[in-house]
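cron nightly-structures :: item 1 of 1
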Amino acid sequence: MSYEINGKTVETDANGYLVDIGDWNEDVGKAIAETEGVELTDEHWDVINYLRDAYINENGHQPNNREMIKAMSKKWGRKIGSKDLFVLFPGGGGPSKQAAKIGGLPESRRKGGY
């Protein structure tokens, strides 16, 4: 599978994750989100950017849902729960996987959010 974005072909694996995270930019993220049926808001971008930062700057770390809840509660200044993340990212595999896919990150191989 691949995406055609701004005249450039962006390759994905069989599950729709980018083959090369260096191909990602916000336009690519928007295209993947559209395919996933997710309309991106500022909160979506907060989660996506948090996951990208953790992966890129923390040696490939892929936060799970519990870590995402803590980080977004702090960022948004209110206590959130797992349901809040599932509302934002309702796709298969859970919020951490769908947000990572939209963010151009590799597929997580861990199970569950906790």
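cron nightly-structures :: done
The beta strands are 2-5, 8-11.
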